[in-house]
Amino acid sequence: MPEGKAKKIGVLAYANVEPYRETAGEEYMNDKQLEHFKKILEGWRTMLREEVDRTLNHMQNEAANFPDPADRAAQEEEFSLELRTRDRERKLIKKIEKTLVKIEEDDFGFCDSCGIEIGIRRLEARPTADQCIDCKTLAEIKEKQMAG
């Protein structure tokens, strides 16, 4: 990888955005950082919406009444898996929109549980994160204990 070129990964690639480069003394969640995350979230949301449209078109175009029950079952299973995936993505779109509202309200980037900074790198990995890594880890441990 050439020096000075950061590799775009995950949601950064969806929005065609480079990883954010912080400067010394830069205030956390300044306008430049908020704009960076807004662009990431909007790109991610657009990509998810395009997937929904593709699925709808695919299901309409590929729907067939197969005389063979095995073929019909295979197609129904395929459609079922696609719909389940799109339902998860629909929920993610709602979470993205909730996060965009937090950006507009200047309430983005801070842990909902303890109030500390979530961190640029964690937010680039998961822009919808609403807890710092410590609070999220504790929440997951509690969740495991309650389930087990």
TrEMBL record:
Name of the protein described by the UniProt record: RNA polymerase-binding transcription factor DksA
Q: Which InterPro entries match?
A: DksA_N, DksA_RNA_pol-bd, DnaK_N, Znf_DskA_TraR, Znf_DskA_TraR_CS
Where in the cell is the protein located? Cytoplasm
Which SUPFAM superfamilies is this protein grouped with? DnaK suppressor protein DksA, alpha-hairpin domain, Glucocorticoid receptor-like (DNA-binding domain)
Q: Where along the sequence do coiled-coil regions lie?
A: none
Q: Give the residues the record marks as binding Zn(2+).
A: 111, 114, 132, 135
Keyword annotations of the record: Cytoplasm, Metal-binding, Zinc, Zinc-finger
What is the role of the protein in this entry?
Answer: Transcription factor that acts by binding directly to the RNA polymerase (RNAP). Required for negative regulation of rRNA expression and positive regulation of several amino acid biosynthesis promoters. Also required for regulation of fis expression.
Q: How does it assemble?
A: Interacts directly with the RNA polymerase.
List the dksA C4-type ZnF regions, as residue ranges: 111-135
Per the database record, which ranges form the Zinc finger DksA/TraR C4-type domain? 107-139
Q: Which gene encodes it?
A: dksA
Tell me the superkingdom of the source: Bacteria
PANTHER family with a match to the protein in the record: RNA POLYMERASE-BINDING TRANSCRIPTION FACTOR DKSA (PTHR33823:SF2), RNA POLYMERASE-BINDING TRANSCRIPTION FACTOR DKSA-RELATED (PTHR33823)
Q: Name one Pfam family in it.
A: zf-dskA_traR
Annotated source species: Ferrimonas aestuarii
